Amino acid sequence: MSAYTARTLRTFLTTWYAFMCQYRAEIFLWAIATSLPLIMMGVWVEAGNSGQFPGFTAVDAARYFIAVFAIRQLTIVWVIYEFEYHVVSGKLSPLLLHPIDPMVRYITELLGEQMARWPFGVLLVGLCFFIQPQALWGSEEDPGMWLPAWWRVILAVVACYAAFLLRFLLQYTIALLAFWLERVSAIDSLTMIPYTFLSGLVVPLQVMPDAAREAVLWTPFPYMVWLPATLIAGGEVDLVRGFATLAGWIVVLWLINRWLWRKGLKHYSAMGA
Fold first, then answer.
1. pLDDT of 36-79, one tens digit each?
2. What is the pTM of this model?
3. Taking CA 183 as the corner, what is the angle to CA 258 and CA 95, rounded to the nearest 5 degrees?
4. Residue 224 near residue 250, CB atoms below 8 Å
């Protein structure tokens, strides 16, 4: 990375962070709006206490869903709404005059919002530990304190930002259909269904039947939440298969994205934009 590129990225990030800080109250409400994992934590803690899922205790459930909530704060993407608005309103045209791909602008905007969101996320995670102290300190059956190994933390951070990139590429690739369609955000609503049920957001993959889990692991959705959350929570995961599949989906979506971008620009120019 050249010094010019590094300065450009730093300028984008600081600018977007300052911009997003204007909306701290709204961002706090957004953080609360993504509290579905905390609701599911209460459900799965009760299931763990019932003993219906051997190998997945109440402590495992509490740690997993707190990790899911934290991962969600780092992988929120709404680029499809921004891009659709820019195409429909014609505001994409001035962005094309800039000597940098608009994708960089969209990514740094999301990263700037993450930086503004994190204090609220940490506050809510602290509230979770207050409500479910066994997640931090363990119980009589599992007295170990929740202190992930250093290598798990490093891998979880890598997996988390790879998950963010995967989710961004999936949504941005769909967003590029805005060159031909008027309301592509409706398509994103459809992808939320498999994302909700296959990503580990509602049901941990550990408790799925083996055949169902094997099928789900070939889709991109578990790598957007389940993989980094399981790493942080201390669960078992096939690292080689997990990161290889994650990288494979990123490459596939990147190639489709760049192809659609070139085709879409020609169509956009032909429309006189």
1. 888 888 888 888 877 777 778 888 888 999 999 999 988 989 99
2. 0.89
3. 50
4. no
Give the Å distances, CA to CA, from 237 to 2, 160, 229, 241: 36, 15, 10, 9
pLDDT at 27 over 90: no
Give φ, ψ of 24 to 5 degrees.
-60, -40
* pLDDT digit string, tens, across residues 111-127: 999 999 888 888 888 88
Name the nearest CA neighbour of 121 among 71, 89, 73.
73
Torsion sign (Cα): 214, 215, 216, 219? positive
Alpha-carbon gap, residue 74 to 71, rounded angstroms? 5
